[in-house]
Amino acid sequence: MKTEIYNVKKLSEYRELFIGKRVLVIGAGAVGSYLMEFFTKMGLSPDVIDNDSYTLENAAKHSCLVRTPEDAGRNKAVCVSERVQPLLDEGCTSNGIDCDVCKLGPEALADYDYVILAVDNYAAKILANELIRQIPEERRPIAVMDGTYGESAQSIITDNTDFCLRCVISEEWLKDINVHYSCGGAQYRVRDGADVIVRTSNLASSMAAYLSAEQVEATIKGIVDGVMNRMVTYTAYPNLEITSSHPIRKENCPGCAIHPPAEIKWLHGSVLEVKLKDTINQLSEILGTTDFEITSHCLHYREVYHRGFVADDVCRSCGKPIHVMKHEGRTFIEDLTCDECSAAGKNADYNGNFDFSNGKIIYAFTPDTDNEIQEMTLYDLGYPLGAHIQVIKRNGAFNLADEKVEKMVFAFDEDHQRMHEIKKLS
Scanning 33, 93, 279, 335, which has its CA 20 to 30 A from the CA of 313? Predict the structure, then answer.
């Protein structure tokens, strides 16, 4: 322990219980920056992800770990992780990653004891909940979701036995899940049928982080009764109070319907470095055959399923065939112009139609896949870090509905460690 920073005699007698516990904070904004401060001083090892940058206009809401004005323009996660380094206990670590949750798969979260959702983007919350639900129970982290509403603050902690985080998100807020951001602009809520701006001070943000820290601390100490699977709400003056309640499972909840694979088989390496051809070689050795296919990644985000790898399409400005070589979930309208149109400054013609029916879409990779694609890494093919990769072994069947067909799930054994090392996922 760095005694030059902390006087051991003044620390909690439970301090040693916290050393070695890993926490992932998703979102390093108003709430997340306070969480990083609290978790570091508690003696935890907090990692954090965010793809946004600090701005001066939000300086009043962030923890004072974030230095104003010199940190303006820096990636939030990388910045705040750097700021907590001098406060870490001996043996504790912190890593900040510039990325969004779409770049992560279930196994990227499985190395953590707790995953905290400190974002106001409901699409990201729903996706993170799905990822947590896909992790086998023996390796599944405890999930915490917090946030603010006006000057009130709330935090929910769950081990995913009684309910999932999707259960406590109002369906009203999901009607347009792209609207609810607090860092990119004003935060809105529907009130009496109309959108109204919700104004929140730094006190509410820090209180939300504090409630989450209290829940994490209590469960690490072994206090379960009245803590686990609870929602804690702080209400500001003039009705000052803290209340605790037990959320119930939402009927027909899409999140609760998600379950982990019955079995996960392991490949060596990481999606960040292993090429498709090397993955095929590993699978051929494990399966004892080349009669299999690797299903392309399926990203479910903002209520849309992105299933295919786009090899070719057409320029959305002039109609000329173009080589895309990106997964649907990472392909944007600006990617669909040819070099000539891009050089001329021409924009892609959207017209409300953004499908890839004009090109070549690949939904599964096989040992016969083009060499150019086989030379790409799994990550470049669209698989997120920590992906669960579905492999279909045909066993001579011509129809995938044949009872001889075997479906298996694989993952890479080094993906989880990369979460503590990488700085950016683009």
Answer: 279
Q: What is the DSSP string of 297-353?
A: P-EEETTEEE--EEEEEE-TTT--EEEEEEEGGG--GGGSS-HHHHHTTPPP--TT-
* Surface-to-core class of residue 10, CB atoms within 10 Å of its CB (0-12 exposed, 13-18 middle, 19+ buried): exposed
Tokens of 59: 């300086």
Q: What are phi and psi of 309, to 5 degrees?
A: -100, 120
The Cα–Cα gap between 142 and 180 comes to 25
Measured distance CA(177)–CA(272) in Å, rounded: 30
CB 391 within 8 A of CB 407: yes
**Which tokens go with 291?**
């009669």
The tens digit of pLDDT for each residue in 331-361 reads 988 888 999 999 998 888 766 566 666 789 9
Q: What b/e sequence results for 34-48 when a residue is b if at least 16 CB atoms lie within 10 Å of its CB, and e otherwise?
A: bbbbbbbbbbbbbbb
Tokens 């699409």 correspond to 123
Task: Record the tokens describing residue 349, joined without a space.
Answer: 């013609």
Tokens of 132: 């947590």
**210 neighbors 38 (Cβ within 8 angstroms):** yes
Reading phi first (left if > 0) and then psi (alpha if -120 to 50, else beta), residue 55 is in beta
> Residue 92 has what DSSP assignment?
-
Asked if 158 and 164 touch (Cβ cutoff 8 Å), the reply is yes
Among 11-15, 144-148, 321-325, the minimum mean pLDDT is found in 11-15
* Sign for the pseudo-dihedral over CA of 399, 405, 406, 410: negative
Residue 178, helix vs strand vs coil = coil
Q: What is the pLDDT of residues 259-269, one digit of tens each?
A: 999 999 999 99
Whole-model pTM: value is 0.92
Range list of H helices, 20-136 = 30-42, 76-84, 106-109, 122-133
> Which residue has tokens 């259960």?
167
H helix or E strand, kind and range, residue 285: helix 276-287
Which residue type sits at 281?
N
With residues binned 3-state (H G I as helix, E B as strand, rest as coil), the percentages for the chain, rounded to 5, are: 30, 25, 50
| Identity of the amino acid at 274 | V
Tokens of 182: 């607090």
Q: Which residues contact 75 (CB under 8 A, 6 or more apart)?
A: 50, 51, 52, 53, 96, 98, 424
- DSSP labels for 181-242? -SSSS-EEEEETTEEEEEP--HHHHHHHHHHHHHHHHHHHTT--TTTTTEEEEEE-TTS-EE
